[in-house]
Write a structure and sequence with these properties.
With 422 residues, the protein is α+β, with helices and mostly antiparallel strands. It has three domains: 22-93, ATP-grasp fold, A domain (Dna Ligase, domain 1, 2-Layer Sandwich), CATH 3.30.1490; 97-221, 2-Layer Sandwich (D-amino Acid Aminotransferase, Chain A, domain 1), CATH 3.30.470; 235-421, Succinyl-CoA synthetase domains (Rossmann fold), CATH 3.40.50.261. The protein is 34% helix and 23% strand. The chain contains eleven helices and 20 strands. The strands form five sheets. Strands 1, 8, 9, 10, 11, 12 and 13 form a seven-stranded antiparallel β-sheet that branches. It has a five-stranded parallel β-sheet with strand order 16-15-18-19-20, sandwiched between helices. The chain has a four-stranded antiparallel β-sheet with strand order 2-7-3-4, with helices on one face. Strand 19, helix 10 and strand 20 form a beta-alpha-beta unit. The longest helix has 20 residues, at 402-421. Keywords: ATP-binding, Ligase, Nucleotide-binding, Tricarboxylic acid cycle. One of its GO terms (biological process) is succinyl-CoA metabolic process. Residues 10-234 form the ATP-grasp domain.
């Protein structure tokens, strides 16, 4: 799912007519101070990162003056949460909170439902996970007609909302439901939404995740990659998405796996299919090697698409090897892979990465022809002193032998690194 940061989600809530605190995002302490001066009262400074538990992590701070806002922003922007640096803070007015509530709209995937679902509780805030199940009220929502007012009133009444406030809460939840549908959300969580001292309901936080398949309908979102990522997209992620976006023939999935380009033991990883990918990761893990990336070319892609993916994988700097992990008897014409890999290795090895270990496991339809294409096409590179001297080619006899493949790759990569460092 395409995930929005809090300030981005709140902007879409505001555009949909829902109440959010006054404020905006800052990238420096100086910007945070200026925003606090404009707001003119106590503010909350909130680190913007895809992570829960931000309050407990110390990246949400309440301050009283612009100078304090700048100091809080400097402290938060220096932090790293779950491997993700904090690049921005949201500076917004401190709310006069009378009570906190929780609501979320999610997809109920149960067979008997397969519909959006509202979860609502009169107990919101940082410890929502510890709220007893009996205090979390749920209702499935008609995917065509949305949340009906009488259903919203019913769930609020069951949660203990006073009779005089039922209309206010039902109207608030109905607007959220309409926004959830209009923006093609997978998840829309407001934790907390609050009642202020003046009796208004305000979205104090926002977690918004958009259905990847709907991103094409929403150019206004400016989403570069309609794909789940652990953090901001890397250059490799952007290149990989451009391959998939412009060629739908088979799969050409490519993404960064936290490769730091400095540490040894990273392997350019190119599996064929999801099950094959798991076995290839097992092969690497068994011997202490790490995937620099994840790249999947399955679903019978054409050779040109495989070539583009493989070239991206092999072009990563400072990798210690390349694994074509065909750990499945793939139901696709494997000679497309063979032709693409021959072309890429002939371009990369002689001039850019001579001697790079390349373990090629390929089996499935047209296996014999494919292995012959590999051997014939790379024969002149695979001489004892050639740039492909560490190419090894395997077929179905090793389709489940992850231990052997891992050990071969480890031995070759250690030899390669020692040669480079000598």
């Amino acid at each position: 799912m395409a995930k929005f940061l809090e300030f981005q989600g709140k902007e879409w809530l505001r555009k949909s007519g829902l109440p959010v605190p006054q404020g905006r995002v800052a990238s420096t302490p100086e910007e945070a101070k200026k925003i606090a001066e404009e707001i003119g009262k106590a503010v909350a400074v909130k680190g913007q990162v895809q992570a829960g538990g931000r309050g407990k992590a110390g990246i949400v701070k309440l301050v009283n003056t612009p100078d304090e806002a700048a100091a809080a922003a400097a402290e938060i922007l220096a932090k790293n949460i779950g491997g993700n640096p904090i690049l921005q803070v949201l500076v917004e007015e401190k709310l006069d909170i009378q009570k906190e509530y929780y609501c979320s709209f999610v997809i109920n995937g149960a067979r008997e439902a397969r519909s959006p679902m509202l979860m609502f509780s009169a107990e919101g805030g940082m410890d929502i996970e510890s709220v007893p199940e009996e205090l979390l009220f749920k209702i499935n929502i008609d995917p065509i007609n949305g949340l009906q007012t009488y259903d919203a009133v019913d769930v609020c009444a069951r949660a203990g909302i006073p009779a005089q406030d039922l209309s206010k809460f039902a109207s608030f939840l109905s607007k959220l439901s309409q926004t959830y549908k209009k923006l093609d959300c997978q998840t829309l969580e407001i934790n907390p939404f609050v009642m202020t001292g003046s009796g208004n309901l305000v979205c104090a936080d926002c977690k918004m995740e958009i259905d990847n398949s709907s991103v094409g309908r929403h150019p206004e979102f400016g989403i570069k990659i309609a794909r789940d990522l652990p953090g901001a997209p890397t250059e490799l992620d952007l290149i990989g998405w451009s391959i998939e976006e412009t060629d739908a023939r088979g799969t050409g999935f490519l993404m960064n796996m936290g490769y730091d380009e400095v540490s040894p033991g990273y392997i350019g990883y190119h599996p064929i299919g999801g099950g094959s990918a798991m076995m290839g990761l097992d092969a690497l893990n068994q011997v202490g090697l790490k995937p620099a990336n994840y790249a999947d070319t399955s679903g019978n892609p054409v050779g040109s698409k495989i070539y583009r993916v493989a070239k991206c994988v092999l072009s990563q700097p400072n990798i210690d090897g390349y694994l074509l992990g065909g750990f499945m008897m793939a139901n696709q014409e494997q000679w497309h892979h063979a032709h693409a890999i021959v072309k890429v290795l002939r371009e990369i090895l002689p001039t850019q990465k001579p001697g790079l270990p390349c373990v090629l496991l390929l089996c499935g339809n047209r296996e014999d022809e494919s292995l012959e294409i590999l051997r014939d096409g790379l024969a002149d590179l695979m001489t004892p002193d050639g740039p492909g001297k560490r190419i090894e080619i395997y077929g179905k006899q090793y389709v489940t032998d992850t231990k052997f493949i891992g050990q071969r790759l480890l031995a070759l990569s250690q030899e390669y690194r020692a040669e480079k460092e000598s």
